[in-house]
Amino acid sequence: MKEIHALTRDEVIETVAKHLIGNYWLGYLEPGGNLHVKWIGRSLKWDKNGLQKRLLDHASEGKYTHFTFRKASSVTEAYNIECREYHILRDQLDNIRHPDSPRLLNYSCEYCNHHLRPFGRSFTAGGAVHG
Ligand SMILES: [Zn+2]
Fold this sequence. Notes:
By secondary structure, this protein is of the alpha+beta class. The chain has one domain (5-117): GIY-YIG endonuclease (3-Layer(aba) Sandwich). 26% of the residues lie in helices and 21% in strands. The chain has three helices and four strands; from the N terminus they run E-H-E-E-H-E-H. The longest helix is centred in the middle third of the chain and has 15 residues, at 75-89. The relative contact order is 0.23. Zinc ion is lined by residues 83, 87, 98, 109, 111-112. Residues 83, 87, 98, 109, 111-112 line the site of zinc ion.
């Protein structure tokens, strides 16, 4: 199970290493301790501090209170996870645009053409799904 962290600059610096690529989920903490996801994102760049920088920017915005993240070992992996999460969670997300394909790479979303089983509207991060 993923750890859920408070979305503050101090917490991001403490928990997210520099120069990581990967995915992140932002939202609010539910009474049961799960993250109610409202925003998904990614960083595909190892330079400029990658994932940590993106999360610091979100922390400065102050729109969401909590986050969780997952580091990825390749751009393809991060993109595929972002697409999967988008299709699973899009009914509850604030970012409604489909993730862009990574620049200069010709990947396409493998989930657009597949029927996904519907999940409940209150689907949350945590538990085995993001395991
Ligand atoms: Zn898609």
